[in-house]
Amino acid sequence: MCIQQIVIGCILGDSYLTKSGCLQIEHSIKQKEYIYWKYEKLKTIVRSEPVQVSRYDKRTDRIYTSYRFYTKAIFKDLRSLFYPTGKKIVPYNIEKILISNLALAILYMDDGGQGGNTKKGVIINIVGYDLQSRRRLQLAILKNYNIELNLHKNGQLYIPAKSYNNFYNCIHHFIIPCMQYKLSITP
């Protein structure tokens, strides 16, 4: 269950599932400690250690360096759930598969951060998802974790101060040291 929940959190966050069912995990060079943490947790199902890759971005005229690794091709079932038409969505059964605090913590470490006008306001950036996916994720988190979220027009899920303590209590045990900066304050 631990590996499955790590994978769910990764897919909801920054990771990509290939058509063959390999999970591609990639993070910037600044998050080297984080990607190696994921690698250690998933070591039994990966093909090789993270490798450093550089990519030219013509929009910014810069070269970006990151670390990347792939799992074995064992997630075709999840590929059909998360990419039914080729574009990543939040699956219709998300409330049945996003079931652990660990998965929620990984989603937050991938796409979360501080936000709002209060020290206890945090966001989860889900701008890559369509509106229906965002709503499904919002409702699943409310149902499974009793955390109220506001869905902003800019594609962010905002966790207001009144829900922060509950959110913090769900995830803080799983936030690794290099990602602690994403938690604004302890309740």
UniProtKB/TrEMBL annotation:
Occurrences of domain Homing endonuclease LAGLIDADG (ranges): 5-160
Full protein name: Putative LAGLIDADG homing endonuclease
An annotated Gene Ontology molecular function: endonuclease activity
Lineage: Eukaryota, Viridiplantae, Chlorophyta, core chlorophytes, Ulvophyceae
InterPro entries assigned: Homing_endonucl, LAGLIDADG_dom
Family annotation (Pfam families): LAGLIDADG_2 (PF03161)
Keywords, ordered alphabetically: Chloroplast, Endonuclease, Hydrolase, Nuclease, Plastid
Highest taxon listed in the record's lineage: Eukaryota
